[in-house]
Amino acid sequence: METLKGLNKKKGITVFVINHEKQFEKYFDRIIRLKDGKIIKSREFKKEI
């Protein structure tokens, strides 16, 4: 996960991760929840500098 996060921050590369484990949510700036192929919730996290 740290490698993917580094690519995003250093190179500006967008990374999509499909995951079922809540323990990894801390790595993401945005979480989109799907159910039956439809977005049911979207959250964006602002990181303080």
Keywords:
49 residues, alpha+beta, 1 helix
What does this structure look like?
With 49 residues, the chain is of the alpha+beta class. Helix content is 20%, strand content 27%. The chain has one helix at residues 2-11; strands at 30-35, 38-44. A hairpin with a 2-residue loop joins strand 1 and strand 2 (38-44). It is globular. The mean pLDDT is 87.
- What count of structural domains? 1
Largest sheet composition: 2 strands, antiparallel
Q: How are the strands of the biggest sheet laid out side by side?
A: 1-2
Helix content: 10-25%
Instruction: State which percent range the strand residues make up.
Output: 25-35%
Span between termini: 20 Å
| Average of the residue pLDDT scores | 87
Secondary-structure element pattern, one letter each:
HEE
Architecture blueprint of SSEs:
Elements: H1 2-11, E1 30-35, E2 38-44
Antiparallel strand pairs: 1-2
What can be said about this structure in brief?
The protein is α+β, with helices and mostly antiparallel strands and 49 residues long. The protein is built from one helix and two strands, in the order H-E-E.
